[in-house]
Amino acid sequence: MAPTISASRLASLLGPFATDGPAYRSLSEGIRLLVVDGRVADGSRLPSERELAAALGVSRTTTTRTYAELRASGLLRSRQGSGSVVHIPFAASSASTLIVTPDDADTIALTYSAPAGPAGLGRAFESAVTKLPGLLATTGYLPDGLPVLRELLAQRYTDRGLPTDPEQIVVTNGALGAVSLIAHTLMSPGQRVVVEGVSYPHAHESFISVGGRLSALPIGESPWDSVALSSTLRGSRHRAAYLIPDFHNPTAAIMSDDERGAWAHQLRRHDVVPVVDESLRDVNLDGVDLPPSYASYDSRAVLVDSASKSFWGGLRVGWVRAPHDLVMPLVQARMTLDLGTAAFEQLVLSELLVHGSQTAEAGRASLRAGRDHLLGELATALPEIEARRPAGGLSLWLTLPDRISSQLTAAASRHGLLLTPGPRFFASAGAAGERHLRLPYTQSEPTLSEAVRRLRLAYDDVRGGTSQAAAPPQSETLEMIA
To answer: Where are the domains of the chain?
Structure first.
């Protein structure tokens, strides 16, 4: 049965929308954006036109025209007696994919923060090929991972002051695959999980998909309010807590030593399992001193990491470092999901862990240059937007002068710039996050410059400006995007 979204819920998700043009057009664009970034799921039943008009304080004519626009675009199907249901056809859904197709070569997608392959990555693949015959002599089914990779990862943790056995490592399909596996292993329907109020939305959805109920902490100066955590844990029983303590996604904040100690104490006291995403820990662009791994404060912690952020997004290898007593439950749960991560990719990562230090540094150097270039472009073109310089991670967390993130995202798409609006990263519903925007700096400097130019045009549109700068010639744009 399709999920039904109430009028009040949809109005809360939409937040403020532009009123300087036709209201129905702004409203239809707002709903389309909610569908594109996943806040309204495919198959959801929308409220009636009358109910939505009352919830938004607009005329019935406006909502009727809005639904007509969405039906005309193929994003909504309405049937007498059945209501209006969101339908994402293949052509429409391609607008939200992370890959820009040849037909969309002029589009810049900043909806993801993943770096291109750094210099030297190809050598790891070439070296792995020479070891392929030995790999082919096995079955290739590796539910816990390639032994050599597990040994290297265990040694890596040990060298960093966290003694680890290879048996504690379970290799997965990326960090998100690791979070999903942990959620399947730990959670039962109805159990609660503590999450940061602003965080990586797909991880939250992994817990929700197994029936977990999120308890989001309030948003403050830090994502990790220890007082709020204590109050939350006293209020109800929780099974797990998901956090990103190192170069937090999306804010790039770093959890302090005191905060780690306070969280470890509270989670132990209430028997809550910490699920700690460390996939950005190695993206330390300025070489700042980080506190020890969270597992140094709580041996019960389940750590998540991957090769995607520190090497290449196409290297779909992640892993879990778990306490010994959780390893077998993880492997058993995995057998219901898949039978292992691609063996050759694990071999490539093994090569990188042994010989890839220069490759990793080349990637960080490229990201540093991209970060500094994007900050400079924003300071020149959009001084109204506050952009702090993160010491690590893959993106800027911008503060907008007003609650316009969704409007700005919609306007940017009309200029060929795809963005993810701030509310997508907030666990709470409603207009939270409308003053924020995540802007990755993982693409080339010319592409980032062009992205800022288009963002300026979108900003002028939202603020009622009249900027009509022409798009660059097709050949120039293709070169920048390549």
So the answer is: 7-91, 97-118+359-481, 121-355
Give the containing element (helix H, strand E) for 260: helix 257-269
DSSP state at residue 69: H
Q: Of 50-59, 249-258, 295-304, which gets the smallest average pLDDT?
A: 50-59
Q: Which two tokens stand for residue 283?
A: 């993206």
* 426-480 tens-digit pLDDT: 987 555 789 999 999 999 999 999 999 999 999 999 988 544 333 333 333 322 2
Which residue reads 């303590």 in tokens? 245
CA 331 – CA 349 distance, rounded (Å):
21
The owner of tokens 């290879």 is 166
Q: Domain 121-355 adopts which CATH fold?
A: Aspartate Aminotransferase; domain 2 (3.40.640)
Domain 7-91, CATH among 1.10.20.10, 1.10.10.10, 1.10.3720.10, 3.50.50.60:
1.10.10.10
d(CA 308, CA 57): 45
- Helix then strand count (H, E) for the chain reads 18, 15
Average pLDDT value for residue range 335-363: 89
> Distance between CA atoms of 357 and 353, rounded to whole angstroms?
7
CA-to-CA separations, 45 to 14, 79, 89, 297, in angstroms, rounded: 16, 11, 16, 46
- pTM here is 0.79
What pLDDT, on a 0 to 100 scale, did the predictor assign at position 133? Answer: 86
C-alpha count within 13 angstroms, C-beta hemisphere, residue 260: 20
The pLDDT of residue 121 is 85
Return d(Cα 135, Cα 150) in angstroms, integer.
15
Range with lowest mean pLDDT among 77-81, 112-116, 178-182: 77-81
- The CA-to-CA distance between both ends of the chain, in Å, stands at 43
Amino acid identity, position 367: L
Q: How far apart are CA 56 and CA 58, in angstroms?
A: 6
The domain defined by 97-118+359-481 folds into Aspartate Aminotransferase, domain 1 (3.90.1150)
